[in-house]
Amino acid sequence: MASLSLKTLLNPRSGAAATVASLLDALGGSVSVQDMSGARLLGALDGHAGRMPVWFADVQLGWVTGRPEAAGAVCSLLTHLAAREAEKRALAAEVLHLYREVHLIEQLSEQLTALFDIATVGRSALEQARRLIAASDGCVLVRDTDGGQLSEVASFGDGESPLPCLSPLASAILERGVAGIVNDAGAQPSSREFPLLYAPLRSGRRTVGIVALGNAAGTPYTSADLKLLNTIALQTAAAIENAILCVEMVGAARDREQLAALQKELDTARMIQHSLVPRVFPPFPERTDFDLHAQMTSARAVGGDFFDFFLIDDDRLAVVIGDVSGKGVPAALYMAAVRTHIKIAAIKSITPEECLQAVNRVLVREQVSSMFATCFYGILDTRNGELRYCNAGHNPPWVLRAGGAMESLTDAGGIPLGLMERMPYTGGVLPMGAGDALFLYTDGVPEASNAGLDDFSDERLALTLRDGARLDCRGLVDLVTQELVTFTAGAQPSDDITMLMVRRTAENHPR
Question: 102 lies in a domain?
């Protein structure tokens, strides 16, 4: 950041110069402002008047000449204006830092979403880290499949990776799951030659490994470096977890991180939320070619869950489910905006990916807060059973086949709505035969916790769906609800719990 001086502060185009000039006029007489070289910046110079220094943050910026009482007033104003300018510069620096983090998320997300090899994921993460953080050495260590020993999957440097100084810290990092900096060479019992920066690779509640950087130049790491490495670690951990799941072919969705403590219950938010979702079931009693049911249970502090369904025309059924970040009235109002924009875009008969891309563009341009929304949008052609869909960062739905098979839709979509404008959204196509069903849900289902703080989990949800696969939509939604009540011992959920299920019951809509 450029140093602050009276010359830059009192630039003729700045508001500060006009403010000081107004005070000088009001004081009258010969009062002037000079920089450290004695050059006059404002006012009339009086060679016989006294001179008073202008200080800010223990640094002298210049002088004010004139009568003591007048010079003192001008000095006080200049000090105040300098403080305001320093605050503006600090804020600008913070905004720039945040922009770098957002840009990093965008770049790294684009790279990692297409990678399913752990070593390639690790190399990509280290390459991005080296671009943003000074480092001579670095490594990515990943736990083996049984969660035990660490092994190196990627590194750079002088060939001594994993970093020797990381070894005595590894167990504590994995156990605590907390990032850190070690700049003091004497802070660890092992011999050290350079500062160390490390972060756990956390996916949900599980720590799958560690990413670490070292700087042989000896330049200490900062909290800003730690934030950037943590951002890289979060993205890298998610990609590594996906790669592990693909290799093991277990098909289980990874646990989502626990949500922060929620704010108190807000009746207004609940009213907004429930007034905007369908409440009459069955919604289309005259239709025999599909079955549909949905249910929402609000949390103590109302979240931003929403769902919707509607007929675009006689042969196309639209289904929507989503979750807005945040709680209370702001989340409910944002949810209403998302739902409205989706419906407006949907009636134009565009594809799900085009619809979500259009909604994302509107939300980013209208954004007045830091909120965003995950969303799954699908269109079922009831004539031929073709489901077209797009997933904007939402929990992957389950497909329940009539023959008993299950699959998770994880292949098409993009980032949550409202984060960044120029982001691609891809669509998917799924054939659904008679008896096949689609089960949609929000994160409140797998993250519902019991007294022991254990999550219901994606695995329990999958088992419950498998057990009740032959039930109708209302029956299976009720079964999952009962399993949640049993697991949580009837405790009030800390997050909204929303489910929507649609089943194709006939090959064709009767005319």
Answer: no
How many domains would you assign to the chain? 3
Can you give the CATH number for the domain in which 367 is found? Answer: 3.60.40.10
Residue 74 sits in the same domain as residue 123: no
Indicate whether 407 and 483 sit together in one domain: yes
Q: What residue ranges in 325-384 does DSSP mark as E strands?
A: 373-381
User: In sequence order, what are the beta bridge partners of 64?
Assistant: 33, 52
Spatial distance between the Cα atoms of 501 and 495, rounded to a whole number of angstroms: 20
Q: Consecutive sets of 10 residues in the chain, 511 residues long: mean pLDDT of each? A: 74 76 75 81 72 83 81 82 79 65 60 68 85 86 77 77 64 81 61 75 81 86 86 82 62 32 44 58 81 84 78 92 80 80 84 93 81 93 94 95 92 89 91 96 92 89 94 95 90 84 77 52
> CA angle 109-254-367, nearest 5°?
45
Q: Using omega within 30 degrees of 0 as the cis cutoff, is the peptide bond preceding 220 cis? A: no
Helical ranges in 200-351 per DSSP H: 223-248, 267-275, 328-346
State how far the alpha carbon of 308 is from the alpha carbons of 57, 222, 278, 350, 404, in Å: 57, 46, 7, 17, 27
Domain assignment present for 511: no
Q: Do 345 and 222 share a domain, yes or no?
A: no
Judgement on whether residues 65 and 180 belong to the same structural domain of the protein = no
